[in-house]
Design brief:
2 domains, Cytochrome Bc1 Complex, Chain D, domain 2, about 375 residues, two-stranded antiparallel ribbon, mainly alpha
Length: about 375
């Protein structure tokens, strides 16, 4: 789920507005929702989380729909070469990243951006590093149709699904009989992606006073330093304020202008979405272009590597004129100790989020399907 092309997302905004309207209208297509006995539990935010942004009531968690979304997420047949699925770039053990500096799509093509972690998406107002997509259900269209990622037009993806008896059976079981359409496809995927929640790290247990939630002295000092020096951007227990900021990576932005890629405003040049730091110890490499291999590299950047530009975030300009965040070597180690407490092994190992057990079925066109 890396960067869309400027042509698709900036020069043709009307098409995406029409598609958003189609998805909204398509809610009528799911009015005949079938609720199986094994329905998933509604998203219930933990005590240290705000309410989700995603309107769960319009896509009620449903066990059959969740399993359908999981199957779609891990199905490489949705890509043009049959080799790349959503799960190719979003691997569970890496907090649904891929360990690559730049995402790798069909035919080995490189995206211009790093694959972001997929977690707590129901709390996101916008998606992509430049905020080019608003709405969890619409988000899936970016990697699906990107020439650097899955390279499949929406109409072609729907044709593949409708040509497969197993998919037709599963969609009919959830949405009723009829042709598989865009709203059904996007809602089913969102059933899976909205369930990828990270809420049970050792830090979470600590702030909720739950068993297993002890922090060491170094980790508590790191937490205090983090609150003083990092929480201006990585705010709340979501560890992001969802803003777009220039964090001093470059002095100019000829290859990727960030938020300005969408708004075309010079004041947005070099600004990228503030990522959550949950599971950050598992999501290397870092930044929108994967330029930093380790978390110590990231902290070193903020301590003495911030570069000036016209849109540099004010929080990185110190009163004495220096740039960055004043951090000693000891303070950096303590912050790193705290960041390690944000790892949520439940998300990283939950078998519900793993690829379905493989079973091969061949449809009339000779296409194979991996199912559970």
């Amino acid at each position: 789920m890396a960067a869309p092309s400027p042509k698709t997302w900036v020069r043709q905004p009307l098409g995406w507005l029409l598609l958003a309207a189609l998805v909204a209208v398509g809610s009528a297509a799911v009015a005949h929702w079938r609720q199986p006995a094994a329905a998933a539990v509604l998203l219930a935010p933990p005590a240290n989380f705000p309410a989700p942004v995603y309107e769960v009531a319009k896509n009620q968690p449903n066990e059959a729909a969740f399993e359908l979304g999981r199957m779609l997420f891990y199905d490489p047949r949705l890509s043009s070469d049959g080799r790349v699925s959503c799960g190719s770039c979003h691997q569970q053990a890496r907090a649904f990243t891929d360990g690559q500096a730049l995402a790798v799509g069909v035919a080995g093509r490189r995206s211009p951006r790093n694959s972001p972690a997929l977690q707590n998406l129901a709390w996101h107002r916008s998606f992509m590093a430049d905020g080019g997509v608003r709405g969890l259900e619409l988000q899936a269209l970016a990697p699906l149709t990107s020439a650097q990622e899955m390279n499949t037009p929406l109409a072609e993806a729907l044709a593949k699904l409708n040509a497969n008896p197993e998919y037709r059976r599963r969609f009919a079981a959830v949405y009723g009989p009829g042709k598989i359409d865009t709203p059904q496809f996007l809602k089913a995927l969102a059933q899976f992606t909205s369930a990828l929640t990270s809420t049970n790290s050792r830090y979470d247990q600590y702030v909720r006073h739950e068993p297993g939630g002890a922090l060491s002295a170094d980790e508590r000092r790191g937490q205090a330093l983090f609150q003083a020096k990092c929480s201006g951007c990585h705010a709340t227990d979501l560890f992001t304020d969802e803003s777009f900021r220039n964090n001093g990576l470059d002095t100019a932005f000829p290859l990727d202008s960030g938020r300005a890629h969408i708004t075309l405003a010079p004041t947005d040049a070099g600004r990228f979405r503030v990522p959550s730091l949950r599971n950050v110890a598992r999501t290397a490499p870092y930044m929108h272009d994967g330029r930093f291999q380790t978390l110590p590299d990231v902290l070193a950047h903020y301590a003495y590597g911030v570069r000036p530009s016209r849109t540099l975030d004010p929080l990185l300009r110190q009163p004495d004129g220096r740039l960055g965040i004043a951090l000693t070597e000891v303070q950096q180690r303590e912050i790193l100790a705290f960041l390690a407490t944000l790892t949520d092994t439940e998300l990283l190992t939950n078998p519900r989020f793993a690829p379905p057990a493989a079973r091969q079925e061949t449809n009339p066109r000779g296409m194979q399907l991996s199912a559970n």
